[in-house]
Structures are given as C-alpha cells and as structure tokens.
Design goal:
Elements lengths: L8 E7 L7 H11 L4 E7 L5 H7 L7 E4 L13 E2 L1 H6 L4 E5 L2 E5 L2 H11 L9 E4 L3 H12 L4 E4 L3 H10 L4 E2 L14 E4 L23 E4 L8 H8 L3 E3 L2 H7 L1 H8 L7 H11 L1
Parallel strand pairs: 1-2, 1-3, 4-6, 7-8, 7-10, 8-9, 10-11, 11-12
Antiparallel strand pairs: 3-5, 5-6
Helix pairs in contact: 1-10, 4-5, 4-8
The structure holds 2'-monophosphoadenosine-5'-diphosphate.
2'-monophosphoadenosine-5'-diphosphate (ATR) binds next to helix 5.
C-alpha cells in the first residue's frame, strides 16, 4: 500500500427487504460529488441476523450504517450508546461504529425540521396537527416539540394517539373524524400515515377549513406530489414535500462517516427524484 492510500470507507443501509432503498443513490451522489474514497451498499439482513451483522460490520471496514424496516426499534437494544434523538423516537435509523462502540441516533426528526426550514417554514410558527401515530409520528412529534411547537396527534386508532401523547406532555389528541373541521386552529399539518402513497389508499383530508397561512407537509414521497400537496397548492397554502425530509435525514450520517457536511440542493433532489420514476 502506498503511503497516501487510505482504505475505502464503507457504509450502507440495513433492511429486510432493502432493495427498494433510495439511500445508495443519495449517498452515492454525495460520495461522487465530494471525491470521497467510500462506498454505500445495500445490506439485506434478516431480523434474526441483525445482532451478528452489527458485530461483524466494523471488522469488515464499515464506519456506520442506516437502518430501515424492520430494524429501527430492535436496534435500540443492540447499541452501546444511544443519542437522545433515538431515545425520544424509540427507534434508531443511523449507526456509527467508533472506538469499538455502536452509537445509535435517529435523524428523522432532524431531517423533517431541516426540510421545513429549507422551505422557509418555521417549525415553531404555531400549533401542529400530526396525522398518524406510528414511528414517523413519534419522531416528528418529538422534533416539532423540541423546536417549540405545540403538537396534536390525530389517528384512526385513537388509543395509539393517546398513548403517544402521554409520552410528549402537553401534547393533545384529536379524534380522527375531526381532522378537517379542526384544521382552522393549526399552523402546520403533517401527514405521517402511509395514506396517499403509491399502492395505498388515498388520504381523505379536505383543506377547505385551513387558515390561509397553513403549511402542509407530507412525508410520503412516492408520488412526489401527493394529492394532499396538490390541494395545498391549489388553495394557495405552503406545501412541504416529503422527498426533502429523506435527503435531509441523511446529512448527519454522511458527515459522521465520511467527514464532510454534504449539501442538499436541487441537483441532489433531481438525482433522487429521477430514481423514483
Ligand atoms: P410508521 O412507523 O412508518 O409511521 P405504522 O406504525 O405502520 O408506520 O403507522 C402507519 C400509520 O398510518 C398509522 O398511524 C396508521 O393508523 P392506525 O394506527 O390506525 O393503524 C395509519 N394508517 C394506515 N392505514 C390507514 C387507513 N386506511 N386509514 C387511516 N390511517 C391509516
């Protein structure tokens, strides 16, 4: 090995299945842009194999990894150090392997807030109505509350929203049936459900009662312009599309693994969006 040669830095996304992940496209574009000797791989790992995979990846040259379905919650018990973002979200989506330790964090909330700001939307502009009560609602609710917003969870299954709100006092709960009529009291609407995603049922959510300064955010990014966002635009409301959150949530991992603060810009958006078609 010549003196200036350094080993290829490896990272990847661990999931089961994982072939659909857009993360290799995204990190690959940044690795090429910044001329980094690194690779970002797809890592198909079945649930039962996750503990062994996390033990062996560092020895294979991996500096870290992302976690996706179904590993985000299981990984909590496998990390040596958990960042407060992972504890609040009760899920891990980013791992760093450093000094023999597995460090877990959750960048979904950071990505959501960064995407709002990139669209000129202040997360603390007023009360936020969060549709859904799954893992995405938890991460986004925590991030919005940390940013200073009052949050309300609204979910088809009320018990899940009630349980979630208990973890984030003084969060409120709104019955699913009241999501349209109550909209006038909110400054931000966030869809964290799978409704409106390709091959899923549509989201029934009229924006007729929205206040004129409502910002409307959808974490669904296939299609890029969901019917919720299309209606927001038609009514002159501020739309915040979901692909931006995917791009922004990847920033902290890339910086930790490869030592460069990567930029989310229109070119990156184009590259990843082209891959969705
Ligand atoms: P994630 O962890 O990705 O957020 P999840 O835990 O499966 O995913 O949550 C999916 C969300 O979409 C839930 O809030 C779910 O509502 P329920 O808790 O009532 O299941 C919501 N969702 C899925 N299908 C729905 C439907 N047809 N109508 C209303 N909400 C739906």
């Amino acid at each position: 090995m010549r003196l200036h040669d350094s080993p290829t830095l490896l990272a990847g996304v661990i999931g089961w299945p994982v072939a659909h992940s857009r993360s290799p496209k995204l990190h690959g574009a940044w690795l090429a842009r910044y001329g980094i000797n690194g690779e970002y791989r797809l890592l198909p790992v079945a649930p039962a194999a996750l503990p062994a995979a996390l033990r062996t990846l560092p020895a294979q040259g991996f500096v870290g990894a992302n976690l996706t379905i179904p590993h985000k919650e299981a990984a909590l018990a496998l990390c040596d150090v958990l960042h407060p973002t992972a504890l609040r979200a009760k899920a891990v989506n980013t791992l760093e392997f450093a000094s023999g330790k597995i460090i877990g964090s959750n960048t979904d909330g950071i990505g959501f807030i960064a995407n709002l700001r990139a669209h000129g939307v202040d997360p603390a502009r007023g009360p936020a109505l969060i549709l859904g009560a799954g893992g995405a609602a938890r991460a986004i609710g925590a991030a919005l509350q940390d940013a200073g917003a009052a949050i309300t969870f609204c979910n088809r299954t009320p018990d899940r929203a009630i349980a979630l709100a208990k973890d984030f006092p003084p969060a409120n709960v709104l019955p699913w049936e009241q999501r349209e009529t109550a909209l006038k009291d909110f400054a931000l609407l966030v869809n964290t459900t799978s409704l409106g995603m390709a091959h899923q049922p549509p989201l029934t959510m009229s924006l007729e009662n929205a206040s004129p300064d409502l910002a409307v955010s959808d974490i669904v990014y296939v299609p890029l312009q969901t019917s919720l966002l299309v209606e927001a635009v038609a009514r002159g409301l501020k739309p915040v599309e979901g692909l931006g959150m995917l791009l922004h949530q990847a920033v902290p991992g890339f910086r930790a693994w490869f030592g460069v603060q990567p930029e989310v810009d229109a070119e990156l958006y184009r590259i990843v969006a082209a891959d969705l078609l």
